[in-house]
Write a structure and sequence with these properties.
single chain, mainly alpha, Hypothetical Protein Yqey, Chain: A, domain1, Arc Repressor Mutant, subunit A, 2 domains, about 0% strand, globular
């Protein structure tokens, strides 16, 4: 079963169960997926769906961070609950150790040696960790490794 079918199936189950938060998140995801399908003018692949889900997860993480800074713990908690629902559809997140191993491979391939060359490394590594790691976290790890 593809991601779209899974989300559709889960939406029906959540409607029956009465979970308003999950229903809201799933409807948002369905809407985002529909917009992506219209944008691409073709049926979505699971890769396209992962792009949409990763983007939704990133929005939640950013909102959690901003609400935390503003002292709005109630809104941060709401975003955390939504993020947990989105995570169900994303591949399992890889560990920092695995990311570091991939970064070192990318650095060896690109021969990058300074923080100014972070773009080369990010271009090499991001397709490998797409949907499996937060881009901001990957960026931080690349920068730390390149700084030495």
């Amino acid at each position: 079963m593809g991601l779209i079918e899974q989300i559709n199936s889960d939406t029906i189950a959540v409607m029956k169960s009465g979970d308003k938060v999950a229903l809201s998140v799933l409807r948002m995801l369905k809407s985002d997926l529909k917009y992506k399908q219209i944008e691409l003018n073709q049926k979505l692949t699971d890769e396209d769906c992962l792009d949409v889900l990763s983007s939704a997860a990133k929005k939640c993480r950013d909102a959690i961070r901003e609400y935390g800074k503003a002292g709005r713990d109630d809104l941060a908690a709401k975003e955390k609950a939504e993020l947990e629902i989105i995570k169900k559809y994303l591949p399992e997140q890889i560990s920092d150790e695995e990311i570091e191993r991939l970064i070192k491979e990318a650095i060896a391939q690109t021969k990058a040696s300074t923080p100014a060359e972070i773009g080369l490394v990010m271009k090499e590594i991001m397709p490998k960790v797409k949907g499996k790691a937060d881009g901001r976290r990957v960026n931080e790890l690349v920068l730390n490794i390149l700084k030495g």
